[in-house]
UniProtKB/TrEMBL annotation:
Keywords: Signal. This is T9SS C-terminal target domain-containing protein. Residues 1-19 form the signal peptide. It comes from the Bacteria. The lineage of its organism: Bacteria, Pseudomonadati, Bacteroidota, Flavobacteriia, Flavobacteriales.
Length: 388
């Protein structure tokens, strides 16, 4: 992560989290099967393990949303918050929550990364049965719209987990079908589309990574999966079980079999191994970032950028690396009606600027951020979405 690094504050799991640990992981024990060990932060540059946020041995306090009180769970079953079969995780950065589902369970769990308290969201929407591995939820990601999305092995159920106030609701969006062009690379077949994980892009579509390394683009409007290609540069027997976008917009993948983490270019699907040397058992990955996020702009020169475009902590970063840009600049923020709602002066030195800008008093919604030079000429105009 040498270019366009996000500052430390952008991911706050607690005071002890260190730099570049902008990935979250479900980690397993050194075992041939799936045995949950802990939720942990991961270094996206090296793949090294960081702070353990919650483990299988942590004393869990479970609050049932439906029953409106503390509940006890049967730890001898697969249907509890610390079950051994974990494979689906998303990060709700707006609330600093980890959202996850055990494979053999329809329950949704929400772990507050700061307080370690867990909310149980019981639902009758997810049709998970222990005897049908096709029904198990193995992929999960936060969508660009702020909702959590979860998908089962066979693609027969796409779930949307939404939050309104303090309450979570689960909806069934339907069945994902193969695009007619997929041919033998079927999204619904175990050999080519089974398992894995998924990430979201800036248009609220999803890229699903199968365990075999196949990649499918899923459009939520059409509920179709189109085969994109197969990851190259990983070992032949590599099992892709976790995927998440890092701050550079690349995808990091991990394996449940205990192997290195790889960084994948989504355009070429070429993978390169991360240098950390660790070979952890990772069942799922999650992050706060989105694929193609920097492309969702009105006019974005390659050497001038603002990010993130989905803003949930009221900060954006302005990055300029262009010798032709000099002197004082003006950053303006316009709402969807065209009203100027904020301005801030910037100063470029030697064609370089990397500055954090606080978006004060902006309510949720879409905005255009414009940067103009001293003569009033626009050098960048980009759409952002502010959420809380």
């Amino acid at each position: 992560m040498k270019k366009h690094l996000f500052p430390l504050f952008l991911l706050v799991f607690g005071a002890n989290v260190q730099a570049q640990q902008d990935l979250l992981a479900i980690a397993g024990k050194d075992n041939s099967g799936i045995v949950f060990s802990d939720f942990r932060a991961m270094d996206a540059a090296s793949g090294a393990s960081g702070e353990k946020l919650f483990s299988a041995d942590t004393v869990a306090k479970i609050f049932s949303q439906d029953r409106k009180g503390i509940v006890s769970e049967d730890k001898n079953s697969y249907n509890h918050s610390q079950a051994v079969t974990m494979a689906a995780l998303a990060y709700d950065s707006s609330n600093n929550n980890l959202v996850y589902m055990p494979m053999f369970s329809s329950n949704v769990y929400v772990l507050n990364a700061k307080t370690k308290e867990i909310t149980l969201v019981e639902n009758t929407v997810a049709r998970v049965t222990s005897c049908d591995i096709n029904s198990h939820i193995t992929r999960m990601a936060t969508g660009y719209d702020g909702n959590i999305y979860a998908l089962n092995n066979a693609g027969t159920q796409l779930l949307q987990i939404s939050r309104k106030g303090s309450q979570y609701t689960v909806s069934d969006l339907g069945i994902i079908k193969d695009d007619i062009s997929n041919g033998k690379n079927s999204f619904t077949a175990m050999e080519t589309g089974f398992g894995g994980d998924m990430i979201a892009d800036a248009e609220n579509n999803f890229y699903v990574f199968s365990a075999s390394g196949n990649v499918f683009k899923v459009t939520t409007k059409e509920l179709k999966a189109k085969f994109v290609g197969k990851i190259s540069g990983i070992p032949e027997n590599y099992s892709v079980n976790g995927s998440a976008v890092n701050a550079k917009g690349k995808v990091v993948i991990a394996s449940a079999k205990g192997d290195s983490l790889y960084e994948v270019d989504l355009l070429t699907l070429q993978a390169k191994v991360l240098p950390g040397g660790e070979k952890p058992h990772i069942y799922d990955l999650a992050s706060r970032y989105f694929a193609n996020d920097r492309n969702s702009s009105v006019n974005t020169p390659a050497n001038i950028d603002i990010y993130p475009t989905r803003v949930d902590e009221h900060f954006i970063n302005v990055n300029i690396n262009d010798k032709t840009v000099k002197g004082n600049l003006k950053l303006s923020v316009f709402d969807i009606s065209g009203k100027n709602v904020m301005e801030q002066n910037l100063s470029v030195k030697d064609g370089s600027l990397n500055q954090q800008v606080y978006l004060k008093n902006l309510v949720n919604g879409a905005y255009i951020v414009s940067i103009t030079n001293e003569s009033g000429k626009s050098i960048l105009s980009k759409k952002i979405i502010v959420t809380e």
